[in-house]
């Protein structure tokens, strides 16, 4: 099954340059640390530097280089929508091939969209949507339908959350 991502979180890496970014021991230490232990402080790179035996400037420069190389896609918080009073849903839309790019652009214009993929099958665009209420989700889906002309959008609300944490060991 093919799948194409329409919600990019970072500049895609050059596929020819795969594995060509030279990471040293310090880069690996930083990557290991920031996956689960990113400091929540007004100067997180200073805190990381102190913990890892580096200067704040060096940590920041290395993180910037890792991000530019596509090794780091994003640095940000992940939160449980339900724990903060929000609602989450998976949506599937039946989009004509000639409308896929425009549909994806409209969907991505909503800040509560976290993923947006093209899939094979009748319902060929799948995306996740987080909003303060079910009513707000319905409003957004109605707007997307109105703005794109796509009438077949399934709303598949979250009934059970299963999280699988994936941490990479860069040692």
Please describe what this structure looks like.
This protein is α+β, with helices and mostly antiparallel strands and 171 residues long. The chain has helices spanning 25-34, 44-52, 56-68, 100-108, 134-148, and strands at 3-5, 87-93, 113-119, 125-131, 153-157. It has 2 domains: 23-68, Arc Repressor Mutant, subunit A, CATH 1.10.10; 82-157, Alpha-Beta Plaits. The protein has a 5-stranded antiparallel β-sheet with strand order 1-3-4-2-5, covered by helices on one side. The two termini are 33 Å apart. Residues 8-18 have low confidence and may be disordered.
Largest sheet: 5 strands, antiparallel
Counting DSSP H or I runs of 4 or more residues, the number of helices is: 5
Query: What are the segments in which pLDDT stays under 50 over at least 5 consecutive residues?
Result: 8-18
The share of residues in extended strands comes to 15-25%
Report the strand count: 5
What is the 3D shape?
A: elongated
Can you tell me the CATH class of the largest domain? Alpha Beta
The helix/strand order is: EHHHEHEEHE
Helical/strand content category = alpha+beta
**At CATH's second level, what is the architecture of the largest domain?**
2-Layer Sandwich
Helix content: 25-40%
Mean pLDDT: 86
Radius of gyration: 19 Å
Return the CATH topology of the largest domain.
Alpha-Beta Plaits
The strand order across the widest sheet is: 1-3-4-2-5
N-end to C-end Cα span: 33 Å
Number of domains: 2
């Amino acid at each position: 099954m093919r799948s194409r991502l329409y919600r990019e979180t970072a500049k895609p890496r050059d596929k020819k340059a795969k594995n060509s970014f030279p990471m040293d021991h310090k880069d690996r230490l930083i990557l290991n640390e920031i996956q689960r232990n990113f400091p929540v402080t007004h100067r997180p790179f200073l805190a990381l530097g102190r913990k890892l035996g580096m200067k704040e400037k060096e940590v920041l420069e290395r993180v910037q280089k890792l991000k530019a190389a596509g090794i780091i896609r994003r640095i940000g918080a992940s939160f449980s929508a339900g724990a903060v009073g929000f609602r989450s849903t998976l949506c599937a839309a039946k989009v004509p091939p000639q409308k896929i790019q425009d549909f994806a652009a409209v969907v991505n214009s909503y800040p509560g969209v976290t993923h947006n993929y093209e899939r094979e099958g009748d319902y060929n665009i799948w995306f996740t949507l987080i909003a303060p209420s079910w009513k707000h989700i319905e409003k957004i889906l109605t707007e997307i339908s109105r703005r794109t002309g796509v009438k077949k959008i399934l709303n598949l609300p979250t009934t059970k959350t299963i999280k699988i944490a994936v941490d990479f060991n860069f040692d």
